[in-house]
Amino acid sequence: MAVGITPKPLKYNAEINEIEWLSSTLAKFRVRPAAEAVKDFIPGQYVVLGLNNPEGSTLRSYSIASPPNEKRFYEFFIRRVEEKNATSTYPLTHMLFRAQAGEGIFLGPKVTGHFTLEHTGGADRDKLKIFVAAGTGLAPFVSIVLQHAKEIVADAELQKNFIVLHGASYQRDLAYKEDIARVLNNLEREGYLATISRPKEDTDWGGFTGRVETFFDKEKLETLEERLGFEPGFIHPDRALVYVCGLKGTIRNTILNLLKRGFVPQDKRLRQVLGINSSPPSTIFFEQYDT
Prior knowledge:
- The chain is of the alpha/beta class.
- 22% of the residues lie in helices and 28% in strands.
- Strands 1-5-4-7-2-3-6 form a 7-stranded antiparallel β-sheet.
- The longest helix has 12 residues, at 248-259.
- The N and C termini lie close together (8 Å).
- 38% of the residues are buried.
């Protein structure tokens, strides 16, 4: 996602309508445009947010977590970064986490991005869509699942074609778990599985442990298929598309593990590095949250 600082102050055109705090470093921000309605967009797209600071202003792109049929506001799932970096001495998240509901904010004029079902071939209802999210990388998948919620719940066959795998440090960070599970889980199967990476600090957690990309480790992949109600080897590019959103480690390790099953990343540079020519269709797509 793009990040940057500009010397020119921004003219605020939106309001932080509400902040839902999940912890001191994790929150849902609901932003309402001041003079216009929430724009139509495709689930999986993103928009720029910005705040002014003593140096000028800081801008950053964020995936929209709310579905397009939510017309009251845009919702963003944001973690406060721990460290400042060379890009800016005023990281946007540091300023956002000092903000309060009712304060102004800059909202970019365009909603854009191609990390969507429509832009990747995922609109094929018969293909299994596996969404792999690290932390706040869940945001675009929340938008996708909630937008199609009524259709998915009403169609058992379609429900089988959506899988969400979410990894977080602690179970308190597993935001939206009830919303997604309500759409994807039923008596026959689970379409939402979560894992936490710091179980020693979360002693009442009884679920999966480890980073989300470890679901695809060689020794765990067949276990994942069994848990999802699939035969061994079912997760294959002939039947599935994989979408990864989060930090580069999650993206890298997911791709490396699934190359063994024949999955091919969309990214042209990765194809060149891996010696994959342009003919095989893309079956792994990613949105990267760090640079």
